[in-house]
Design brief:
single chain; alpha+beta; six-stranded mixed beta barrel; 21 strands
């Protein structure tokens, strides 16, 4: 019979194996009856026929698959055993499910952020170029158009250099006015990235020249949402900031590049003065690194060009430091450390879970010592016992793997905010084949780790008749010590992150966020070129908004604190010599009432007032950080500055007030030096124009959003009002990533501590049960119950201490790795390590005391009769 015929015969047997067994028994009974009729003695007939059980086994071996039959029998036997011990099965499955599900979710996040290919052709070639500042140690700063033009004409290691600039625009003319995230790009940008349009075409040469740049490309999502996926949208005129643009194309779905921006794309068009500029830095450069060109070669060329620019343009490029970084590295750069930490936490939790399950399996095997010994005596081999015990762990892992999918699905939703903003548009964490493959791998890992060692160890003990001996206790003790060490690692990391999160929440932002509502109200330059019109708009809006019942204050400003971490400009202080890199300050334009609306305290002088208008003397208010830097030990009131460096002839501005510091760069960063200018005295400085309306309300600021929006539209019906948010929610976004990291780590650490203490409790309980006779003898010989308690607790303390020593040593190294994730917390913070030690000690004592309490209740007479 050929190979396929053999397989067909065996498959046919599997389909009718019950009928085969029945027919086989009937046939054997028939032959036995025939022999009995020919033989006088029944015993002789049966001996001549042979062992019926052995004959049935051999027949099954010939017709079926022995290994598969045996495996199915082991699985059925395992399931019956789990039904008899549901508590054991539930604890083991839930333990593995939490560990595998959490591990799957974190590994899926890491795979998506660090390894999954970016949605561009040949993504490894895509490279970003930044213009850093050596003095200020800025290495990821944006670039000037003049620098881009020079790089485009001279670089050899990067091809297709293109630029793009994130921006915003108002979409009006049809339906509700809408403020959209947009971008401006050079004509070759999309060709460099390597994508194709979903509809229409991309920019062509010549469309990046002023006067010929009124074309626009829509994102796929905007085309779907705002234009109803109309295929006839090409050639249609739309109004962007009240200027007509012609739609020429639609991007492919989910396209984003570096920033999570780009619902509309227009050409970057600049005149000769723009392309010659090297001081104003607001664009980003990208290109492709050809095959065979390393990042080291690219950086070497940029280093040479940086030195050349510093020499040729000392005024604008004195501190220039160009740097290249791959797109993948830059997108994942800010998340890399936290992801590695979470991966380490996952691996630790998996080890703890596997160790705990292995300990449970060992305990169960010891409890089944009599059964396994009988099987061994009846002829079962050591390998057969190992296979049976390993099957139990395999069944547990399969059940836990299925349950872990539910855990992973819930965890992935919570982890979605940890995806870097530049990847969020095309990275959705969902259950897919990648997730399932990761989950299967983890389940197999857990099976091997938690099942093989107990199976071999139990089989060895049985063959040497030492089951339940001291070596089992030592093995379990080593597992518990390892669990304690890993739990300390996770607890230390969680405690450090918790302290960081608490410190961030307790940081004073420099103003009063409660009751404050923010909204974006950007004025189109085409309608408000006249400075007087801009000022009148602000005044009219503020008059209407302040009249809304429940509103106690309102003002316009350049940004909501912490939302715009840019806006720096060079300044010169009269009569002061300052170090290079110390002559840049954050510029903010405001309307009168800004400081009172936000609750920013006045330290000296006065605030900006209604009388500070275009016809009066130029004034400014500075924060304490600037006053201390520029005029240390002196009063800043009456001092003068002007915008630009010492070579410019800009008018002098008098300092009239000093206010408290505001953490504009984020809650974790110190306040920068800030200058506040009245909007009415600098209306042409649209770079820092007051684009945000801030409103102080009596309570629940979100309840006033509709009334304030109506007040704005009463003044200007076409004015967009976007990004309406209570300021506390704005600040909460600053800590969102750290909050998620802390929550995950605390959950892992809590689970790890619980599992470690559960394992310690099981070990001590088992030891008490095994030593019941010994403890009874001790009591009979005069030991007190308290001495028994001390003996039992001391046994647990031995393993806990061993694990603690290793765990704290490893935690000291881990905390240094976490330095970049911490805020106002020392890596070796004594309070954190002390709290972890106290928590571990208290839980370990509880885990040991519960079985110790049972030990002190032992009756000597009963213990001596105990078998």
């Amino acid at each position: 019979m050929g190979f396929f015929g053999e397989w067909a015969r065996r498959i046919a047997y599997w389909q009718r194996r019950e009928q085969f067994d029945t027919e086989l028994q009937e046939e054997m009974a028939f032959h036995l009856a025939q022999r009995e009729s020919d033989t006088a003695r029944l015993r002789d007939a049966r001996l001549r026929f042979g062992n019926q059980t052995l004959l049935r086994e051999r027949s099954r071996d010939e017709w079926g698959w022995t290994l598969l039959d045996s495996a199915m029998a082991d699985i059925r036997y395992t399931l019956r055993g789990f039904r008899k011990q549901p508590a054991f099965a539930s604890i083991a499955i839930s333990t593995l499910a939490v560990a595998i599900g959490g591990g799957t979710a974190i590994l899926t996040l890491a795979d998506a952020v660090l390894f999954r290919p970016l949605p561009y052709p040949d993504p490894a070639e895509l490279t970003l170029v930044f213009e850093g500042n050596m003095q200020r140690e800025l290495v990821r700063a944006d670039t000037a158009p003049g620098t881009y033009r020079a790089l485009r004409d001279s670089m050899r290691t990067l091809r297709g250099l293109a630029l793009y600039q994130p921006s915003e625009t108002n979409l009006t003319g049809e339906g509700e006015p809408e403020r959209l995230d947009a971008a401006r790009a050079s004509a070759n940008f999309f060709q460099t990235v390597g994508i194709r349009p979903h509809l229409g075409r991309f920019f062509q040469a010549g469309e990046d020249i002023p006067g010929r740049d009124s074309v626009v490309i829509l994102s796929y999502e905007l085309w779907q949402r705002r234009f109803g996926a109309d295929v006839h949208v090409l050639g249609r005129k739309i109004l962007l900031s009240e200027q007509p643009y012609t739609v020429i194309g639609v991007l492919p779905p989910h396209f984003r590049y570096y920033f999570d921006r780009g619902e509309l794309w227009t050409p970057f068009a600049g005149g000769p003065e723009v392309w010659a500029g090297r001081s104003a830095r607001y664009i980003y450069i990208t290109g492709r690194r050809p095959n065979g060109v390393s990042m080291q070669q690219v950086q070497a060329e940029l280093d040479a060009l940086s030195a050349q620019y510093r020499n040729d343009f000392p005024r604008d490029c004195a501190q220039t430091k160009l740097q290249a970084v791959s797109l993948r590295e830059r997108l994942a750069e800010d998340s890399r450390t936290s992801l590695y930490f979470l991966l380490a936490a996952v691996f630790g939790l998996l080890l703890i879970a596997c160790s705990n399950v292995a300990s449970l399996l060992l305990t169960r095997a010891v409890a089944r010592g009599a059964e396994l010994s009988v099987r061994l005596a009846l002829g079962a081999s050591r390998g057969r016992l190992v296979r049976q015990l390993f099957t139990e762990s395999l069944v547990l892992a399969v059940a836990a793997g299925g349950a872990s999918l539910l855990v992973a699905a819930a965890a992935l939703q919570m982890l979605q905010p940890l995806v870097p903003p530049g990847m969020a548009a095309f990275t959705t964490l969902t259950i897919d084949w990648r997730v399932v493959s990761i989950q299967c791998g983890l389940a197999l890992f857990c099976t091997l780790l938690s099942g093989l060692l107990p199976a071999f160890r139990t089989a060895d003990s049985l063959t040497t008749r030492a089951i339940g001996g001291v070596h089992h206790e030592r093995l379990r003790g080593a597992m518990i010590a390892g669990e304690v060490a890993l739990a300390i690692l996770l607890l230390t990391g969680a405690s450090l992150l918790f302290r960081t999160f608490t410190n961030l929440n307790n940081v004073a932002p420099g103003f009063e966020p409660d009751g404050l509502l923010s909204m974006q109200t950007v004025l189109p330059n085409s309608l408000y070129r006249d400075p007087a019109l801009r000022t009148r708009f602000y005044e009219n809006i503020l008059e209407r908004v302040r009249g809304v019942p429940g509103v106690t204050g309102a003002a316009f400003a350049s940004a909501v604190p912490t939302t715009w971490k840019g806006g720096f400009s060079t300044y010169t202080a009269e009569g002061r010599t300052q170090e290079p890199g110390q002559t840049s300050a954050m510029m903010r334009q405001t309307t009168p009432g800004y400081f009172k609306t936000l609750g920013i305290p006045l330290r000296e002088g006065r605030l900006l007032a209604e009388g500070d208008h275009g016809g009066s003397a130029l004034v400014a208010v500075v924060n304490e950080a600037m006053a201390k830097r520029v005029w240390p030990g002196e009063s800043a009131i009456g001092k003068r500055i002007h915008r630009g460096d010492a070579q410019t002839d800009n008018p002098w501005i008098t300092i009239v007030g000093v206010v408290g510091d505001v953490r504009e760069m984020g809650l974790a960063a110190p306040s920068p030096v800030i200058t506040y200018f009245p909007e009415s005295q600098h209306p042409t400085a649209t770079f820092s124009a007051p684009n945000y309306l801030l409103v102080r309300t009596q309570h629940s600021p979100g309840a006033w959003s509709d009334a304030i929006r109506r007040a704005v539209h009463e003044v200007s019906p076409s004015q967009t009002v976007a990004k309406i948010l209570p300021v506390p929610e704005v600040l909460a976004k600053e800590t969102q990533e750290r909050r998620i990291q802390m929550t995950i780590t605390v959950a892992f650490a809590s689970t790890a501590l619980f599992l470690a203490c559960l394992g310690l409790y099981g070990l001590i309980s088992y030891a008490v049960a095994q030593r019941r006779r010994e403890l009874g003898v001790r009591l009979a010989l005069g030991a007190t119950p308290s001495q028994l308690v001390a003996l039992v607790v001391g046994s647990g303390a031995k393993f806990t201490t061993a694990g603690a020593v290793v765990g704290f040593a490893a935690a000291a190294g881990l905390s240094r790795f976490m330095t970049s994730l911490l805020f106002q917390v020392k890596p070796l913070d004594p309070a954190v390590f002390g709290a972890v030690a106290g928590l571990l000690a208290s839980t370990a004592v509880i885990a040991c005391w519960l079985p110790a309490r049972r030990a002190r209740k032992i009756e000597p007479a009963q213990a001596l009769r105990y078998d």
